[in-house]
Specification:
By secondary structure, the chain is of the alpha+beta class. The chain is built from 28 helices and 17 strands. It has 3 domains: 221 residues, Glutamine Phosphoribosylpyrophosphate, subunit 1, domain 1 (4-Layer Sandwich), CATH 3.60.20.10; 204 residues, 3-Layer(aba) Sandwich (Rossmann fold); 167 residues, no CATH class. 42% of the residues lie in helices and 15% in strands.
Amino acid sequence: MCGIVGFLDKEENIDVINDMLEIQSYRGPDDSGTFFDGKSGVHFGHNRLSIQDLTSHGHQPFISDCKNYVIVFNGEVYNFKTIKIELKNLGYKFISNSDTEVMLYSYKQWGIKCIDKFIGMFAFSILDKLQNKLFLVRDRAGVKPLYYYIHENEFIFSSEIKSFHKHPKFKKEQNLEVLPYFFQFGYIPAPYTIFKNCFKLEAGHYLELKIDNLEFKITKYWYVNDFYLKEKINKEEDQIIEDIENILDDAINLRMVSDVPVGVFLSGGYDSSLVASILAKKQGKKINTFTIGFDDEKYNEAKHAKTIAEYLATNHTEYYMKNSDMLNLVEKLPFYYDEPFGDSSALPTMIVSKMARQSVTVALSADGGDEAFCGYSKYFFLNKFQNIFSNSFKREVLKTGLNLINSNSIEYINEKLPKNLKQTNIKDKYNKFKRAINSDSLEEMFENASSYVNKKEIKKFLSISKNEKLFKKWQNIGNIEFLNQMMAIDYKLFMNDDVLTKVDRATMSVSLEGREPLLDHRIIEYMARVPLNIKYKNNQGKYLLRQILYKYLPKNLVDKPKSGFTIPLNDWLRDELRTMVDKYICINKLDDKIFDISEIMKIKEQFYNGKNLGTQIWLILMYQMWKEKWLD
């Protein structure tokens, strides 16, 4: 795992490249390198976290033998050894055991189509001197980030936005149009960023830049929707399960290719338990597993993870998160996340990453299971209620009933339920569900269920109107089931801009490489074509994944309500973080061109008096802290 940067300037400016590298040096503390090409003006920089070929032969930027091609690369191509054999048979000679060299010669041999051969997570740039072009490429799922800035005669790119601040031509102009999306979803959806003229290269896309005139085009080379639209797999359930297990085996085994120690994040949920189980069975030695817990039993999953670890006989490490850990990290969030980011589970993710880094350099994470195998509770609720939209009377009755019940009552009822029926984070789930039922269409229903804050509530405190033309990813894919529609949208939206952003910054903040076996593109390509009646069966999400997991673990160890990585945010904001809330959410610091200040102060007062408005407070706090760090 690494960090890459680059820009165009006919005058050599290695000092700027070095400054851009330095500010994100935690992405690759083992080595750094720079490159300048006088003819094209291309500057490349690279921070290296040594994972494959720990020798100097893996140094980047990597220059081809003929000097016509240069690459900077962040990530891993797990099947590089297979591709290397193919290239050797074509006459290529290699000086290293790194995947970087294989990628560059793959481009030399097959051009940009080489990316179709790669299994992995990657963000890279290649200078092609023969064509006088620069290519930027991002992996299919979007595991690795890649940003670019293009304005007037400037073109800059980087793994993280913070490096742009070290370039003298970068203009820090805030893109106010995206703020309604941040306060609705907790992130800024690709391709946009918080700055004007600055963009995320979307997952499964590559950018081709003509260096002479800065003309560029962006090409979509892989798209999850395409696989949902393909003909469904016509096989028996047992054969489908066998196929998936074979793909999973290969995906996990490929991600164990490393010259440094590897571990697994273990939450005790289906996804991480499956990854840990397959590894424990396949490896000839004990695997390392890591989890964190909370003293508050409502949020604590550490005990369950420990039970799984004991059954699998792993080298298990757990850490109970203290409030002081959280307080210290909150102030660092704006630095590591670069733009406003509202997913509070970034905090425990950063802590478990720090703990794992003390023992390993690579950690496997199980993200992507919900989106591929149908795991989120919102899918099941919304799928059941989709027929209500064809009956206006039923819809109005349900709306009226839900609007009479507040989230505190739901929490009280939830506490009285048997343990196997209890839901964690029930208030947030209920509020999202209530917003969904108060929608006017299926698309709006799913959008509201995926939102932190209702659009109507945002309008009350945000002075900037939402530009509906800016973002259109909620539209139907085609004539496919609503449940599949939701999974496909989440795969390219929430998973990419929230989950993977969270994990990348959290792991990289401590120089830990996070690998995502469930995001092997072969898994979603297969699962998208699995008939829905097998994917979601007996009212069970992750039905197929469960059948595989039961081969490794007893049902009573793994069957439990889904929890997620939640924290006692409301309590913290009213107690330990109250000083921080008052510091940043106050009349003197709020911008009246962005906020309705009186409404914000009313929200804060109501929150302190017990109203369930912690999400709004957290999002406003994250924006205010980001603004002070990067703009003020």
